[in-house]
Amino acid sequence: xxxxxxxxxxxxxxxxxxxxxxxxxxxxxxxxxxxxxxxxxxxxxxxxxxxxxxxxxxxxxxxxxxxxxxxxxxxxxxxxxxxxxxxxxxxxxxxxxxxxxxxxxxxxxxxxxxxxxxxxxxxxxxxxxxxxxxxxxxxxxxxxxxxxxxxxxxxxxxxxxxxxxxxxxxxxxxxxxxxxxxxxxxxxxxxxxxxxxxxxxxxxxxxxxxxxxxxxxxxxxxxxxxxxxxxxxxxxxxxxxxxxxxxxxxxxxxxxxxxxxxxxxxxxxxxxxxxxxxxxxxxxxxxxxxxxxxxxxxxxxxxxxxxxxxxxxxxxxxxxxxxxxxxxxxxxxxxxxxxxxxxxxxxxxxxxxxxxxxxxxxxxxxxxxxxxxxxxxxxxxxxxxxxxxxxxxxxxxxxxxxxxxxxxxxxxxxxxxxxxxxxxxxxxxxxxxxxxxxxxxxxxxxxxxxxxxxxxxxxxxxxxxxxxxxxxxxxxxxxxxxxxxxxxxxxxxxxxxxxxxxxxxxxxxxxxxxxxxxxxxxxxxxxxxxxxxxxxxxxxxxxxxxxxxxxxxxxxxxxxxxxxxxxxxxxxxxxxxxxxxxxxxxxxxxxxxxxxxxxxxxxxxxxxxxxxxxxxxxxxxxxxxxxxxxxxxxxxxxxxxxxxxxxxxxxxxxxxxxxxxxxxxxxxxxxxxxxxxxxxxxxxxxxxxxxxxxxxxxxxxxxxxxxx
Length: 708
Ligand SMILES: Nc1ncnc2c1ncn2[C@@H]1O[C@H](COP(=O)(O)OP(=O)(O)OP(=O)(O)O)[C@@H](O)[C@H]1O
Hints:
- By secondary structure, this protein is α+β, with helices and mostly antiparallel strands.
- The chain has 24 helices and 19 strands.
- A seven-stranded mixed sheet has the order 1-2-16-3-12-6-7, sandwiched between helices. Strands 13-14-15 form a three-stranded antiparallel sheet. A three-stranded antiparallel sheet has the order 17-19-18.
- Adenosine-5'-triphosphate is lined by residues 63-65, 67-68, 116, 118-124, 173, 175-177, 410, 611.
């Protein structure tokens, strides 16, 4: 077939070489690397069921959307026995192999960053990695006394718990993780597993109270409703999902998700991780309480003087499940204190305020329950050996644990409407991208140094530090958002105006076309995103849903709620008086955790897994090139290729070079030494053919960009 190309576009076409069509294992093995070659290679391989492709140290993983026989014991063993993962086909086990080898040989902690859009296969990749690592280090007990026996199995059992409470069906993925996750695996010098700590990021708690069309609430609610028909959980008195405001608009069953089986797996995991039965029951009671809280409805008396509850049934059920004093819960939901001068009077909430308080309480309870679960898992997975739990310590005497971190985090997001959550996710992607570019850039320089060639300042990478500064720097958007918390008359609109005034000279900030729009655009590394700032201040303030919530929860008969109440009270007491609300803001907490995460990644040798979703319908054997190309760009892989092209994009081993340019040896006769012959040929080509940028490495002949 002949494809016509507009004349002006001819110069943008890339030359196709044989290797570009082969579907090679490693893009960097191509003598000339182009974006088109990358896309074509990934496509060819994915049709051959080879879902993994290497771009040097980056692993591209295309979701096959059906199970493949490539995770069997045989594959596992092949990688375990391999000296170098590059001797085998690219595979997620190869990334695990590299990281473990890095731990064993090097002096640096290791990090594996898995990113990609929703449904691209991040969580599955993280699970394959974890099983590989667990299998490799199994039984390598530090003290040889069996004390750590079973820790690897326990670490694997965190998955059912995290998935039940943190995953939900969305339109893009029936088992979508609604939070980001960093797993910190700790090893002894002999690579025995010593512990694991989990950190979560940005759990989507808004999903507790409502979901978009075609989606579902968190899996755990559906598991619990199924299980509570029978046996030990009957006492919860739960009904079907249509009885609950928070679930009745949910799609009831998620394709491929077996709620009954998953609940059995959850209970097994709880037991294996040492959650006592009473604690499990308390967690289920809190969930049942949340569902009943959601059914509370309010009305104002005719004179609008008072606010009352429509029927007491949901309140009674919620108080019963949460073991809260009934009247304290009722008054907490209906009234608040207003301070006028020295006096404080009690007044009724408005209808909208009461509904917001009800949903706020439910979200807060769910979020705190999730945090508590993680804390409990962490406590059970930590084998103390005198090291610092934040992993800050170095390894001066070789006795501190070796760390392997696995990050499973949502990729860059750009939806029809983008809010504070997208801004924070995109900020984390900007930070990771900056780190990624620096690492790729550094490895390119190191690669060439190995060939005895110093690239010096000849290559550059796209520096997105200005976007990071715009959002997260001193005086940046998030600082300004925090400042608004201290301003009594601040609104989302005043925040946007201040941002536009302070930062409009920045090329990265896009000023809205229409005056009065409460929002702005940001030119991110991947694409320009328009943010709607309605609700930014409220989300950031992260106010307690009820003034009296700390006291209320401490009055519960459930120890778990008492604990949450105490931690709320403590947080109120210890928040810095100078910075007041700012130090408790949602964005401030996120920024702190992001900084800690980046510090850990920066201190590690990092491996990257870029997961790609090949089609929007989640179908096997379908490959939408435009979609894949966009993801390759968002994931920074194209930038990695671009960096490579600036240096020596065409690299050939001496044998390969001599084979291809054999005919020229007549013009520039060489010696029997292959390197010397290549050297002569390069000199000849540079002089006679005026080809610039040719260099000779120690193993390869390298051709600079100008020569392409
Ligand atoms: N290697 C694989 N082999 C077979 N199926 C896979 C593989 N990776 C992913 N899948 C399928 O794709 C689905 C989505 O994958 P996964 O949940 O890991 O995506 P994700 O990137 O973590 O999405 P989200 O960000 O929404 O959590 C899985 O439930 C599974 O059915």
